[in-house]
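Contributing new records

If you add data, match the layout below exactly. Sequence lines come first and carry their own label; structure lines follow with theirs. Keep one chain per record. Anything else will be rejected by the validation script.
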Amino acid sequence: MKHIVIVFLMVMSVPVSLYAQIPSVVTGRIIRHADFPSLYVTARHIDVWLPAGYDNDTAAYRVLYMHDGQMLFDSTITWNKQEWGMDEVAGSLIKNKEVEPFIIVGIWNGGITRHVEYFPQKPFEAIPDSLQKELYKSIRQNGAEVFMGQKIMSDAFLKFIVSEVKPFIDQRYRVKADRSNTFIAGSSMGGLISLYAVCEYPEIFGGAACLSTHWPGIFSMNNNPIPEAIRTYLKNHIPSPDTHRFYFDHGTATLDAMYPELQKKVDPLFSEKGYREGNYMSEIFEGANHSEAAWRARIAIPLRFLLDR
């Protein structure tokens, strides 16, 4: 477990300057919008993947927004030499006509601000102030602070995506901009913020893929009110099953070993709202750990689920 905690810290603390190189891809191409400015969050890169054929086509494409954009395409320039392999997986699915053509908008995390940008804000603020103060003192097993001395700001982060990034993408690229063609995905804390994005902006996003969703919010379950606060929030904010899809999964090794019992308490909330097999998936991958390699091995499943023809 110790090495996984260190993994999280490194993802948050690697300087953006180390990722100046544009990812090399096997299929399609990357367009980088460097240091994309924002009124809400710090500037960061936006890497847009266009599948093969986009430049010679006239059709509009669906859009998948993804978190931790620096980890999606090229393992030679990531801190842990792993990647999601999104160009290979998405390119294959499109080529084989398993999904409708789509582009990927890889939004880089903010480094030191990653945890506070990805932590669902309204559930946290519903926790009593005294408990919030204690949670802000949370540390990792290696002694590092979870929140790095910062306040949760995921509402501002979502405004960045919805009011700044998405309008730019809609104007700059040939896309289908409506809800039924707009999706969001991520892993771990990126899974949490993907879920929160759809619940907060159900008119914008038609579905989310949440891999290895980090329900604890911190790295201990001792006296941890966060999972219950998130479930309480969900009871009042899960959008209509008539217009949305949700995909959840987790492994059973390393950090993912924390998730099975917590996911079991979330699934019934969606069932009670009317979600069924066609618009809801919750998968378990026995033995899978908490890593880009594990997510790469199964990302095709949620892509087919969200983007099927």
